Amino acid sequence: MPEMITNWLNTHEIFTATTILHYWSGLVTTVQLVFLSLIIGLVLSVPLAVMRTSRNLLISGPVWVYTYLFRGTPLLIQLYVIYYGIGVIDGIQDTFWWDIFKAPFYPALLAFVLNTAAYTTEIIRGAMVATPQGEIEAAKAYGMSWFKRLRRIVLPSAARRAVQAYSNEVIFMLHASAIASVVTIVDLTGAARDIYSRFYAPFDAFIAVALIYMALTFTLIFCFRKLERHLLRHLKPANG
Amino acid sequence: MLDLKGYGPSLLNGAVVTVELAFLSLLVALILGLVGASSKLSSNRVLRAVATGYTTLIRGVPDLVMMLLFYYGGQVAVNSLSDALYDAYGVDFFFQFDPFISGVVTIGLIFGAYMTETFRGAFLAVDSGQIEAANAYGFTPWHTFRRIMLPQMLRHALPGVGNNWQVLLKTTALVSIIGLTDMVRVAEQAAKAERSPFLFFIPVALVYLLLTAGSELFIKWLDKRANAGVVKGD
Q: pTM of this prediction?
């Protein structure tokens, strides 16, 4: 088996060990970028969704403006504004922030986090608003405080309802992360572009990376389906 | 007033390109969606398999990768075709694969897949009694499709089509990456040259916001019209 791989790598012009390692480092970057943005975005979006459902306009209004702005404009523009914009902020070159933001990874991460947090906030809000009124009344009748109601009743059942829409957001984020290659990050797409320009072989370079993205996508879809089945087990018909 | 340092007219031209691109891609996507949904619901196994393969493939691959593949790959394919033609028949033929065409083809193909799913659901929402009645009247399949299915499914498809359109509009920004001079590309070049990113990107973002907000209102209005006379269950 190892000889087979070595032979194949030696006879193949494009897919040599070097290019495969290049793809691998691209894969690592993509996974890091997507995973970090999703986690941070999710953590941010829960309190934002709670604020968004508030009846006080001073609390829900700003969150509405934020989600409206980030959902109404292309992620590419958001990335450009942050990537090019950070460099021209007066005096940032003298602060420690510059050490973080001069590499393209962190501006891209910031753009992705803000974007996915906006979408996720709306997903969670939708699920929270759909909480059956009776559940909240029951919680009130038990004398639960607002926070306890939120923590024990509203958020857990909202999470169940949100999983399906959130899985779409995760796939969307994975696909959207391809634009990181535009700001010189060597993610999967960036690696494919390097390999394309080195060998002038668009089909090999991009079809290979498309297959990797497909594998990632369908693995994610499979995992989410498992999770959904687990979370919605109580809704399954008996003997079904 | 806003001083765009002389980039105003080219930004405006870019905005027109963006809108043209979006509408042409929408047209391609709608046609592909109708064909795809009809194939998915057809009794022909080959058609069903092809349509399922198409939607699965599109869902798995990022739009940008698809676009790069079509743009760079399209040129290479056209070049080798013209070489082959020249060698075999001495025909001198050259075709420049430009970013606009690649953009329309890619975005059309991607959203064709999403429209396929939307239309499939909408077709299934049409009462089967309607189709039986059409059969009983001796309608041909084409007639049933055009006179019965299409007008009745549009109402169910509208919210999904509206969502897809909103996403499509924002996806057009990606075509600037393969070199189309739409407003995003003009803004990027201007921002780099003038070192003032906010001045150029914020107006472009506002145009997108205007387009999506306008579409939202228009879709709401269409939806209201399409559902006129529909009694909502309580």
A: 0.89
